[in-house]
Amino acid sequence: MSLSFYVHIPYCIKRCGYCDFNTYTPSELQDGATLEIVSNDYIYAVLKELEIAPKEITPTIFFGGGTPSLIPAKDLGRVINEITKRNGLTADCEITLEANPDSVTLEKLESYINVGFNRVSFGMQSAKPHVLQVLDRTHNPANVEKAVSMARAVGFKSISVDLIYGTPGESVDDWRHTVEAALALDIDHISAYALIVETGTKLAANIKRGDIAMPNDDLMAEMYLLVDQLCQENGMDWYELSNWSKPGHECKHNIAYWRNQNWWGLGPGAHSHIDAKRFWNVKHPNAYKQKLFSGESVIAESEDLTADQKRDESIMLGIRMREGLSTMDLNSAQIQTLATYGANGFVQLLEDRVLLTPTGRLIADRIVRELTF
């Protein structure tokens, strides 16, 4: 057995307009506080939670957020060191840092390498300033190339960028420019996600007021097919609906999620999955720290997955992957449903597997609903 770790860093300098992640700015946590003050004892809390996790060997560690690259390498390194001592790491353990391009320097990236990181994922989102402005992103597009070059220079083995498509006001030409700019970088991996307008965000409020229009579904479909085409033409194959990589640079951590393997989420709001039991922590960093330091459980809620839930989730997650679904895991009615989609060009029916075609990936959620009804 193995156990991957997700480490949540719930701090950002500024909240982006589209973001509904469990993140907090210093001013949201404490009036006039600096990031150093509000996160001072956070690593101690994470290490306290680690004490109750299973002691299985660790194949992946992923620091996400928030903005993990705001935290000094020596502090994140304490978590890596403790997992190494306590659980042990596989020989090829993947240790990922999410980073804002504006928050790194050559010296800072080198310090992350020195504490054990070997993979970095930069939040690029777009190469077009007007798109970044709508998303309320603060970074300078030119800093992405600089950050990638520095990361490669200090020795990161795998470098990824995250992109978002479907932003109001973004044209197909804008998106093409962004993807081509990303592919021109010295990277190994691209994640491209359709913009989802989440209730309660600044972006949702702007749309509700009529300041900007909702993303266009047909345009977003065209953008998805375009990023898939451009990535394939540049040596990056798709391995999951929203992810493309050069051979050998697939994100092992995310694959552990999609294959329903065991992982433990450290930090406020973090989710865990251990042997068909799912649970998640209290969301607020202050409540999280208070409970841990007083010896209380930080688990907010949990659920034991039923056999039906496990089967449905295996279909939902498996169909997203390049290797698709095994026909051995499907009943005759499900295979018949997929045969209909195959006749319409949405899936490819092999002897023992079912794979989504590019247009089939556009309606993956619809196909899953029919298979799990």
Radius of gyration over all CA atoms, rounded: 21 Å
Task: Look at the structure and name the CATH superfamily of the largest domain.
Answer: Aldolase class I
CATH top-level class of the largest domain? Alpha Beta
**CATH topological fold name of the largest domain:** TIM Barrel
Counted by DSSP, the helix tally is: 16
Question: What helical percentage do the residues reach?
Answer: 40-55%
The CATH architecture term of the largest domain is Alpha-Beta Barrel
Are there runs of 5+ residues with pLDDT below 50, and where?
none
SS content category? alpha/beta
How much beta, percentage-wise?
15-25%
Q: Kindly state the mean pLDDT as a whole number?
A: 90
Strands, total number: 15
GO cellular component, one term: cytoplasm
Family: Belongs to the anaerobic coproporphyrinogen-III oxidase family. HemW subfamily.
GO molecular function: 4 iron, 4 sulfur cluster binding; coproporphyrinogen oxidase activity; metal ion binding
Keywords: Chaperone, Heme, Iron, Iron-sulfur, Metal-binding, S-adenosyl-L-methionine
Structural description of this entry:
This protein has about 375 residues and is an alpha/beta fold. It folds into 2 domains: about 5-260, Aldolase class I (TIM Barrel), CATH 3.20.20.70; about 310-370, Arc Repressor Mutant, subunit A (Orthogonal Bundle). It is built from 16 helices and 15 strands. It has helices at about 25-30, 35-40, 40-50, 75-85, 105-115, 130-135, 140-155, 170-185, 200-210, 215-235, 250-260, 285-295, 305-320, 330-345, 360, 365-370, and strands at about 5-10, 60-65, 90-100, 120-125, 160-165, 190-195, 235-240, 245, 265, 270-275, 275-280, 300-305, 325, 345-350, 355. Strands 7-8-6-5-4-3-2-1-9 form a 9-stranded mixed beta sheet, with helices on both faces. Strand 14 and strand 15 form a beta hairpin. The radius of gyration is 21 Å and the shape is globular. The chain starts with a strand and ends with a helix. The model has no long low-confidence stretch (mean pLDDT about 90).
